[in-house]
Amino acid sequence: YTFHRFIISFYTCRTFGSGVVQTFNGTVFYVSSTCPFTLTHFTHNRVECDITTWRGETGLLVRVEIIINKIRTVLQNGSILVEGKSVWLPYDHTYQHIFHYGVYTKLRSSVLPLSVTWHSVPGGIDSLWVELEQELNSGMTGLCGAPGVAGMWCEQQLIADSVLPEDTCRIRDPLSTVCRLFMSYTLDCLQTRTPHYMQLCEENIYSYEQSEYIRCAFFKEVAQQCGKNSYVWDIWRAVTKCDEPQCPGDLLYKELGEPFVPSCSSPNPRASHQDLIASCVCPKGKVLNDHEDGYQCVSVSDCPCVFAGRSYAAGDIRSTKCQSCVCHDGKWRCSENWCPSRCLIEGQFVTTFDGKQYAIPGKCEYVASQGLNWTILIQFSEKAPSLKTETYTFSNNMVKFDEKEIAELHQSDHALVFWQSSMYVQVQTSFGMKIQVQMSPEIQLYDYTFQSVFAGLCGNNNADTTDDFTTSSGIIENSAQPFAVSWSVGACSVNIPSPCINADNEIFADEKCSVLRDPTGIFAKCHDLIPVEHYHTVCIQRTCNCGSGLRQCLCVALASYATACASQGVLVGDWRKVTNCTVTCKNNQEFSYDMRACNHTCRSLSGADPRCGLDDVPVEGCGCPEGTHLNQQLTCTPKAQCPCYHQSGTMPPGPVVIDGRQWDGKVCVHCSQSPVNTAQKTCDSLSKPLVAKTSCLSGCYCPDGQYEDHHGDCVFRDNCTCVYSGKVFSAGQSVKTNCKTCVCGQGQWHCRDKPCPGKCQVYGNGHYQTFDSRWYRFDGHCQYTLVEDDCGTGLGSFSVRVESVPCCDEALTCSRAIVIDLQGEVTLTLSDMKVTRRLHTAISAGVEPLYSTHTVGLYIMISVPSRGLTLIWDKHTRVTIEMVSCLRNRVCGLCGNFDSNEMNDLQISGSTAVASPLAFGNSWKTTTPPCSDVTMEVFPCERNSYCSAWAQRRCMILKGDTFKDCHLKVDPEPYYQACVLESCSCEFEGKFLGFCTAVAAYAEACSDQDVCVKWRTPDMCRK
């Protein structure tokens, strides 16, 4: 591997005053003209750059035109126009960034190693310079010449070659004037160059003696070249009568100040490698309040905070149902309120108590959740959830107890079951579980609990999402399919929903589900609390795969997001009216988004209503308006017209107890003669829950005390086999997975934990997987902190920053520039398929290397053992960070906080507040240089929907036979979704780069699970 070692240096060309030009190689000359001149023109890596300047009659630059990769930026009349439109700063485009830089303004290119900096004054620009970060000798033309070229150009030849004549322009012959007063103070620094600069001074000032901007721009440049230690530095303004620039608001002018002013958003900006420059700064001990207008300087303790576009004063408290945050030093400090954990089963889509989201692979009967003495079963057919011991059945808009319908309420020692509205039944249990069951138009289950539950589809509620896929046999699977099947009751046929193949359904789903993401729509007020991406994806899948009744499927999906918002105390408004999902109520009942059953029925008037006083998540549905009560005919009547109920009439017959724990372990051949539960006669059944029903199937079974193993043989319990990821293991055999060593014993897995390293990756147009395995999308054009160990402590030892590099199609990302800052020692930069470094201190020989760099196949790998960090780069868009386990809960950035809980990964920089992916990503952009927030993301498939068919067809390789051996070990769904989004470019380079990167990401995940897939071919992503 060839390592490029050098110190980053800049080649600078300047023009200032009324026409002084200093070329890239240091030659200084003067040209005074109102004609347009090419300042510099070149092509680098197929990207063209052309900078043209115009001077007016005052000598100032009155127009500058900068064209980079066909994007035209014009500086004129104090305004900045990009492609003919005026822009505000900071301005960020895929190809370039424009921002304030001290008292100057700077344009930095993303596709060229170039920046342009200028100083504006009334009437024009008095100084401008162009910086190159590397030599670009090939074909450079213009007044600036080319850096690193031996010898000097003929001034007249440069001028002649660079002028672009116009009928109205003229070139003026310079005549002498007096500059001796100023030049007499520069002898100590200019020495033998003094006569030349005297001539330049006279040429610059001639006929502009009354122009302070022309005169002072020249004097300032000379003073800066002499430096702050020279005699002229301290007296040049007094001698020349050049006043200091006026700064706005509370800011003070400083001749040598920080280019980026400390602010409430960034009280300690990273100065990078830039020098101090003329700048407007706050008084010592103050920072700029950049959250409000007026250039006000405040103490850090008085800084306001911002959330969802609103500003909060220091000390203000912002509360949601489950979190309270106080504004402190410009950052949010948050504490969790006492809120129950929540499990959602909405159709075939599950969200566990800890927040992990997945899809059930088949319509079977499952254990939704299970504790020491209770079980909740859910069956995707005629029946739905049921509580063990006392059995309640929910189906077809009906709830039954022991096959008897509950019209209003049922109460026992173990549970209170009642209709909260016409659409929801509420279950309050004695073991701390609250259940809401949506009865129409589709049955959906919502569990709430404060306690730790033990197992099932809903997970274990331990705030650790990495172990949510713990099977009934005790091992953690990596894919949802084997995990869910392990919690099935009886036989279960896997039937994974196929991608949408109905074009009309797909168009309808894409159009109608977009209301969820509309930044100004009915659901927008909830976006900052509940990230909408997952709900949008599920909405499209559920609606697209809907057999009939598309509108109903759509409304169910939209209601899921509205319900999630309501659980956080946000009622989004009348979304059903906006989306044409209105509900028709029976008789004279009325619809409400917060319907309560408490004291709203005639029966409730006969005694204390047990439904009152319950703190529940608001539910929608039909019910009686205030002042009326529901009678047995489901009509709302005044209190005076309600019938009376005797106490004995309010209770249903005594509950029937079904004890499903005792089983007769008899061998049964004919069920008609001796019915037994034959389902409990296999090794597989030992890890599954006992069920209250008898299942008997005539046939041959193992003798009493023996069980059928996964090979079909009869064995004693101690010899029972186990299954992991579809493979059978004998008793005593072990398997290593997710840093655990698991041993098979009596048909179940017994695991021993080991600290696990973390892995984070980003690829394509902003697809991220955090250390805690959370997937999200964020496509920003700035530089962002991927991971660091500072996290507000000021004691950081490393940071990794990334920035997207666009393709020829500006909307696509073709590479990433990476900066590894080993603070205080060395900075490594990875770009253009190579690594460069900048030393801060000398690295001593004879000691263990600070870092090592290797090329491994298609990748560059950088390992920093002392920081516990390894970075792997595919030389394009994919960056992988591997972190040692001892850094758990000690890092932050776009990779999350590495604490095993994916639900808190999206924490805003400097705060514990969790935000949407958009707000989270914006908060981690680096403070220097300034860069604007992303306000709306449009990913390739959304922009090029006509390319989606090609993308879906190609990406099906991930779900097809090529990777079939990996499907049970690594869920292909998130990789498939990312692949489709990445492959939706109809531009050749972006289409295949995105596709190959996405497939390679899944192939590597499979390799990590010891499944090696040879998927590259001469026609597909060849090396």
Explain this structure.
- The model is unreliable at 1-8, 173-178 and 650-666 (pLDDT under 50).
- The chain is α+β, with helices and mostly antiparallel strands and 1023 residues long.
- The strands form 16 sheets. An 8-stranded antiparallel β-sheet has the order 4-3-2-15-14-13-12-11. It has an 8-stranded antiparallel β-sheet with strand order 27-26-25-38-37-36-35-34, with no helix packed on it. It has a 7-stranded antiparallel β-sheet with strand order 52-51-50-61-60-59-58, with helices on one face.
- Strand 59 and strand 60 (869-873) form a beta hairpin.
- The chain starts with a strand and ends in a 15-residue tail after the last helix.
- Among the domains are: 4-162, Protein Transport Mog1p, Chain A (3-Layer(aba) Sandwich); 180-240, no CATH class; 252-302, Laminin (Ribbon); 498-582; 678-753, no CATH class; 758-932, no CATH class; 941-1008, no CATH class.
- It is 15% helix and 28% strand.
- It comes from Myripristis murdjan.
- This is VWFD domain-containing protein.
- It holds the Pfam family C8.
- Residues 341-501, 758-932 form the VWFD domain.
- Keywords: Disulfide bond, Glycoprotein, Repeat.
Instruction: Give the overall pLDDT as a whole number.
Output: 81
Low-confidence stretches: 1-8, 173-178, 650-666
What radius of gyration results from the CA coordinates?
35 Å
Q: What does the main sheet amount to?
A: 8 strands, antiparallel
Question: Per DSSP, what share of the residues sits in E-state strands of 2 or more residues?
Answer: 25-35%
- Total beta strand runs: 61
Side-by-side strand order of the widest sheet: 4-3-2-15-14-13-12-11
Helix content: 10-25%
Q: Assign an overall shape.
A: elongated
Total of helices: 16
Class based on secondary structure composition and strand pairing:
alpha+beta
Distance between the termini: 18 Å
